[in-house]
Amino acid sequence: MTETLCNDIVITYLKQLHLNRMARDCESLAREAEQRGLGYLGYLQALLEGELAQRHEQQLRQRLKAAAFPYQKRLEDFDFSQVPCIPKVQVLELAQGAFLAAHENVLFIGPSGIGKTHLLMGLGRALCLAGYRVLFRPAVTLATELEVAHKELKLPRLLASYRRFDLILVDELGYLPFSKPTAELLFQFFSDRYERASVAITSNLAFAQWTQVFGNEQMTAALLDRLVHRSHILAMEGESFRFRQSLQQQSSQALTV
Predict the structure, then answer these.
(1) Residue 41, domain extent
(2) H or E element: which one contains 202?
(3) Which residues pair with 234 in a beta bridge?
(4) What Cα–Cα distance (Å) separates residue 193 from each residue in 19, 48, 61, 167, 239?
(5) Do 148 and 226 sit in the same domain of this protein?
(6) Which DSSP symbol is given to 114?
(7) Distance (Å, whole) CA 174 – CA 248
(8) Are 13 and 107 in the same domain?
(9) Which residues touch 142 (CB under 8 Å, ≥6 apart)?
(10) Pick from 46, 65, 84: which residue ends a domain?
(11) What is the dihedral of CA 243, 245, 246, 248, to 10 degrees?
C-alpha cells in the first residue's frame, strides 16, 4: 500500500468517526512528528490535542449562543473603582462558579446606570467560559415567555427546559409592575429553581419595594424568602455611568466650540 493511499484511508476513517480536525491535520502533523522524532505516541498526542481544542472552542461558541446575550460584556472591562461598594474579589470568586454547585443565587441591587447589567452579563460570560450553561433573559421577556407557555398549556415543558441551564440571568426585575397572573407565573418560575438551580438578578428596587412589582404582599414575601436564602447580595451605590459619560461628552463638546 502506498503512503498516499494509506493517508487517504486514514483521513476517510477519521471523517467517518467525525474527527474532522484530526482528518484535516493528520498529514501535516505526521510530517512534523517525523521531523521532530516524536514517535507514534507523540504524533497521536498532537492529533488528539488539536481535536480536543477544536471541540472546546465549538462548545464554548454553542454555550455563548445559547446564553442569548444581547451584546457582549466582560468582567475585565468593568471599572470597579467607580463602584467601590462592590468587592472585586468577591465578583471574581463568583465567576469561578462554586456557588452554582450549591444552587445559590446572586442579586445585584441598586439604582439605574451604575453597571448592574454589565456585571450580570460579565458574570454570565465568565461562567460560559468556565463550562457552565447560562441563559440571559430581561425580566419582561421572561414574563412573556411564561405567559405564552401558560396559555398554550406548555408551562411544565418550558420550566423543564429552563432547568437545563446552570444559571439563568434575569435582568431589570422591578422596572415594570406585573399583573397578578404574570406575577404568579414568575413566582412559579423562581420557586421551580429554588434549591434546584441558580438565578442571578438585577433590580433597581430595594427588597421592601418589591411589592410594587408583584402586588401581593404574602407572595412577595415568599418569593424574597426563596431568592434571598443562600444568596450573594451585592448592594450597589453610586452615580450613573451613563449620566457621567453624558456630562463628559457635553464638557468635551463645549471645549471644542
Answers:
(1) 3-65
(2) strand 198-203
(3) 108
(4) 37, 38, 25, 10, 33
(5) yes
(6) S
(7) 29
(8) no
(9) 170, 186, 189
(10) 65
(11) 130
Q: Note the pLDDT of residue 256.
A: 53
Calculate helix-pair angle for 180-193, 139-151, nearest 10 degrees. Answer: 100
Partners of residue 109 on adjacent β-strands: 203, 235
Residues in contact with 164: Cβ distance below 8 Å, sequence separation at least 6, in sequence order: 133
The three cell numbers locating residue 173: 426585575
- CA 215 to the chain's CA centroid: 29
Show the cell assigned to 179.
Answer: 399583573
Asked if 233 and 138 count as a contact pair (C-beta separation under 8 A), the reply is no
Instruction: Assign 3-class secondary structure to 161-225.
Output: HHCCCCEEEEECCCCCCCCHHHHHHHHHHHHHHCCCCEEEEEECCCHHHCHHHHCCHHHHHHHHH
Q: Give every residue of the chain whose pLDDT is below 70, as ranges.
A: 1, 238-257
- pLDDT tens by residue, 64-94: 999 999 999 999 999 998 888 999 999 999 9
- Report pLDDT digits (tens) over 214-225: 999 999 999 999
Write the CA distances from 127 to 29, 97, 123, 163, integer angstroms.
33, 6, 6, 16
